[in-house]
Amino acid sequence: MEITASEDRDVVIVGGGICGLATALALHRKGIRSLVLERSGDFRIEGAGIGILTNGWRALDQLGVGSKLRQTSIRLHGVRDIWLESGKQRQSPLSRGESRFLKRSDLIKTLADEIPPATIRFGCHIRSVEMDTLTSYPILQLHDGSTLRAKVLIGCDGAHSVVAEFLELKPKKIFATNAVRGFTYCPNGHGYASEFVRMRTRQALLGRIPVNDKLVGWFLVQQAGYPHADTEIAKDPELIRQQTLKRIMGCPAEMIELVKNCDLSSLSLTHLRYRAPWDILQGRFREGTITVAGDAMHVMGPFLGQGGSAGIEDAIVLARCLAPKLKEYDSVVSGKEMMVQKVLAEALDEYLKERRMRLFWLSTQTYLTGSLLDTSSLLAKLIILVLMAVLFRDPTWHTKYDCGNL
Ligand SMILES: Cc1cc2nc3c(=O)[nH]c(=O)nc-3n(C[C@H](O)[C@H](O)[C@H](O)COP(=O)(O)OP(=O)(O)OC[C@H]3O[C@@H](n4cnc5c(N)ncnc54)[C@H](O)[C@@H]3O)c2cc1C
């Protein structure tokens, strides 16, 4: 669809990833129309699979897509940790709660299918965001030179967010580790139990998780090589596979086979970025009627498998806070614009107030877990372990969170 030179919209969402689509769907369920602007020509699906834990399922149920998604993946019943150097193993049942590993494409497609057609505009790359000095509403500058005015702007544009840049959020940081992710399809069935297996060495974490009887997701979190070399490798799936096979030499043969036989198109190599917990605590996540959600606000390492679910929670809370106010002032007369802006800004503050501490603790736990992998100093490892034991006596606390009804 062509964009006119200048256009006005009520709610504009930048980014059609998990969080942008979940936000559009949450608003739609509340009777609010929005426009999602996605820079890619189609849905951008990177990273093969995504783990969704109990809190994420609660949020997906609120969006009305939980039961459809449950049909795409098996329920996981346990976690097995294996320390490859010592051969030690620990099994923990997942008797309470719900954990599944989904194909990202299933999640994205299911969310998108529930949103009214024409909500998503592909090929719309937002170059920058400004505040209209006359109206104090946001103006988006697109790469094709056109502009778009919004009453509310929600930046769901991921780790390199232009909306976060407008809000002058502190730059995100990078862990010294990177992650390779992929799928392997086993036509005759993989025969694995419905468990999440994590194999640990001193410098790496290797894992596999079944999606269904024939599809297995796997990952390798490892000390990054030279960033430049990583960037070159990331563009070539065959190089990613070769590099991964080199890195897992000596690991169990079944893992080597999984990597050898992987679906090349599913492979990705990603640097692990995060917004520091203290920046989450202090960040100014709103200006006027502009805010952020998902990775744009709180990109975190994948160590708890919560980044995506946290973005879906954001969507529920944001829609719950915003929708009643938008409805109330739907047919506003021009003289009351300032009052409308004040009320919408208050709704966004309510959203941020509800989310901030949840995101602070999530990012603190992921930061500490990531730092444990990053550091080779025994003293630093000891300090981190003590901190984690004190702060997170129940390490699975984050799965018990309930973001509430939509
Ligand atoms: C290795 C790894 C493993 C992970 N595992 C899990 C897991 O198991 N469970 C879990 O819950 N989370 C996991 N995560 C985190 C999860 O992937 C992210 O939190 C989630 O994908 C973020 O979604 P998002 O929509 O906020 O951002 P993104 O997925 O980055 O989407 C942003 C979208 O915005 C678009 N965009 C960006 N800039 C612009 C622009 N200027 N104009 C227009 N469009 C733009 C992009 O094209 C993209 O489509 C993992 C992350 C990594 C790196």
TrEMBL record:
It comes from the Eukaryota. This is FAD-dependent urate hydroxylase. Keywords: Monooxygenase, Oxidoreductase. Residues 10-327 form the FAD-binding domain. One of its GO terms (molecular function) is monooxygenase activity. Transmembrane segments: none annotated. The keyword GTP-binding does not apply. Belongs to the 3-hydroxybenzoate 6-hydroxylase family.
